[in-house]
Design goal:
This protein is of the alpha+beta class and 164 residues long. The chain is built from six helices and three strands; from the N terminus they run H-H-H-H-H-E-E-H-E. Helix 6 links the parallel strand 2 and strand 3.
Length: 164
């Protein structure tokens, strides 16, 4: 039963046919609203959005890699929304697992344990904040790289090594 038939049933029997033009106009408006509702109900969730995906990415500060599919972009947004935060390796391993990847992280922070009195000339300060992320079972993972680079500490540099 369409909107037009539903509206006609609301009128008294004696007015049948008198207000057909009005009923048709109102039914058309309801039909358009239903179509818009279905579109909005798809776009209001990041795991189903397509037309508004760039707005979701902007909202969560995600820059999708070139050539990423809609599904990869949706997964990155959902992963970002589910994050609760953390600075330890276990947090990043859990984020990767949520995206379907198995990883290990090597933090090259041995220099952080050196005495503060050691002269700076003996090491490069930039080397203190480098990580190597080993990704197992994948030849490439652009959505994982984007996600980890977006949530890592600002001063950290990540190198990804793949083990297919």
């Amino acid at each position: 039963m369409g909107h037009s038939d539903t509206l006609k049933q609301l009128f008294p029997v004696g007015l049948d046919g008198v207000l057909d033009a009005d009923v048709t106009a109102e039914a058309t408006a309801f039909d358009l609203m239903e179509v818009e509702y279905k579109g909005v109900s798809v776009e209001m969730f990041p795991d189903t959005t397509e037309e508004l995906i760039s707005r979701w990415e902007y909202r969560y500060g995600i820059v999708p890699p070139a050539g990423a599919t809609i599904q990869q972009r949706q997964a990155a947004i959902v992963a970002r929304r589910r994050q609760r935060g953390g600075c330890d390796e276990a947090y990043y391993v859990k984020v990767a697992a949520g995206l379907g990847y198995t990883i290990t992280i090597t933090q090259h922070d041995d220099l952080c344990r050196l005495p503060a009195t050691l002269p700076d000339s003996l090491y490069e300060r930039g080397d203190v904040w480098k990580w190597t992320v080993d990704v197992y079972g994948a030849a490439s993972a652009p959505n994982l790289e984007t996600c980890l680079n977006n949530i890592k500490r600002a001063h950290t540099e990540i190198t990804f090594v793949y083990h297919p």
